[in-house]
Design a protein that fits this description.
Helix content: over 70%
Structural class: mainly alpha
Order of helices and strands: HHHHHHHHHHHHH
Number of domains: 2
Largest sheet: none
Shape: globular
CATH class of the largest domain: Mainly Alpha
Radius of gyration: 25 Å
Number of strands: 0
CATH topology of the largest domain: MetI-like fold
Number of helices: 13
Distance between the termini: 49 Å
CATH superfamily of the largest domain: MetI-like
Length: 285
C-alpha cells in the first residue's frame, strides 16, 4: 500500500513537470521558427519562395545567394561598416557613461542633481524625433557621409540608458571598498579603474548588448545621414539590394542571415552577464 502511494505521488509530480517541459518546448519552437524560416528563405529562388511550399526545405540549395549578397551586393563591405560604427559606439558609450555614473553616484558637487536630471531627461526623447535637427547640425559641420555621422547620435541616445543602468548597479557596491582602497594610497583614478571598473562587468555587458542592438539595427539615421556606399551600414545596404524592377528575395534573405548572426552570438556569449546584472539589481531593490 505504501509503495503504491509512493508511486502515485511520483506520477503526480511528474505530470506537472512534463506539462512544463512540453510548454517550454513549444515556446522554444515558436522562437526558433523565424530563424529556420529565414535560413531556408535565403537558399531558395523566387519561384520556390512564392511557390506551393514556402515554409519547407529548399528543393535546390542555392548557396550562391550568399556569394551574390557578400560580393555582388557588397554586404561584406556593409558588414565591416556596421562593425566599425557599432563597436566605436559601444566603446564610447561604456567609457563615458561609466565615468559619468561614478561621478553622479559617488561624488558630491554643486550641479549633481541637475546633471542627473539632465541625463534622465534623455530617456524621454524618442531617437527619431531629433532626426531633422541632428541632420542640419551634421551637415553644417560637414560630417554627413562619414562614420561620425552615425556614431555621434547613436552614442548620445545610448548614454542616458547606460547611465541609469550603471548608477543602479553602482548603488549595490559597498562604499567600504573604496574607503579601504583610499586608505591604502589609491587615488580616485586608481579606485575607479582598479576597484570599480572590474566589479561593473555584468552592467557593462548589459549596456553593451542594449547599445549593440540599438546601433546594429538602426535604419532611419543611417538612411538619412549616409548616401555614400563606402559608409553604408548593413541595414541600408540590405535595403539597397532590392532592384527597381526585380527583387531577388533569396539574396536579400542571405543578407539578413549575415546581419542576424552577430546579434545571436553577442547574446549567447554575454547573456549570463546580463542575468547577473539583473539579479544584483533585484536583490538591491
Amino acid at each position: 500500500m505504501g509503495k503504491s502511494k509512493k508511486n502515485l505521488d511520483s506520477v503526480k509530480r511528474a505530470i506537472p513537470s512534463g506539462i512544463v517541459y512540453i510548454l517550454l518546448f513549444i515556446w522554444a519552437a515558436v522562437q526558433i521558427f523565424p530563424l529556420y524560416w529565414l535560413f531556408t528563405f535565403s537558399l531558395k529562388s523566387n519561384s520556390e519562395i512564392f511557390g506551393g511550399n514556402p515554409l519547407g526545405l529548399p528543393k535546390q540549395w542555392l548557396w550562391e545567394n550568399y556569394e551574390k549578397a557578400l560580393v555582388t551586393g557588397k554586404v561584406a563591405s556593409y558588414f565591416i561598416n556596421s562593425v566599425i560604427v557599432t563597436g566605436l559606439t559601444i566603446l564610447i558609450t561604456v567609457v563615458v557613461s561609466l565615468m559619468a555614473s561614478y561621478a553622479l553616484t559617488r561624488m558630491r558637487f554643486k550641479l549633481q542633481k541637475p546633471m542627473n536630471a539632465f541625463y534622465m531627461l534623455g530617456l524621454t526623447v524618442p531617437i527619431h524625433s531629433a532626426l531633422l535637427p541632428v541632420f542640419i547640425m551634421l551637415r553644417s559641420m560637414k560630417l554627413v557621409n562619414s562614420y561620425i555621422a552615425l556614431i555621434l547620435p547613436y552614442t548620445a541616445f545610448a548614454i542616458p540608458m547606460a547611465v541609469m543602468i550603471f548608477s543602479g548597479f553602482l548603488s549595490s557596491i559597498p562604499r567600504e571598498l573604496e574607503e579601504s582602497a583610499c586608505l591604502d594610497g589609491c587615488s580616485i583614478y586608481g579606485v575607479f579603474f582598479r576597484i570599480i571598473a572590474p566589479l561593473m562587468k555584468p552592467a557593462v555587458a548589459t549596456v553593451a548588448i542594449f547599445t549593440f542592438l540599438q546601433a546594429w539595427n538602426e535604419l532611419m539615421f543611417a538612411v538619412v545621414f549616409i548616401s555614400d556606399s563606402r559608409y553604408k551600414t548593413l541595414t541600408v545596404g540590405i535595403q539597397s539590394l532590392a532592384g527597381q524592377y526585380t527583387i531577388d528575395w533569396g539574396v536579400i534573405g542571405a543578407g539578413l542571415v549575415v546581419a542576424t548572426i552577430p546579434t545571436l552570438l553577442v547574446y549567447i556569449f554575454m547573456s549570463k552577464k546580463v542575468q547577473d546584472s539583473l539579479v544584483v539589481g533585484a536583490l538591491k531593490g
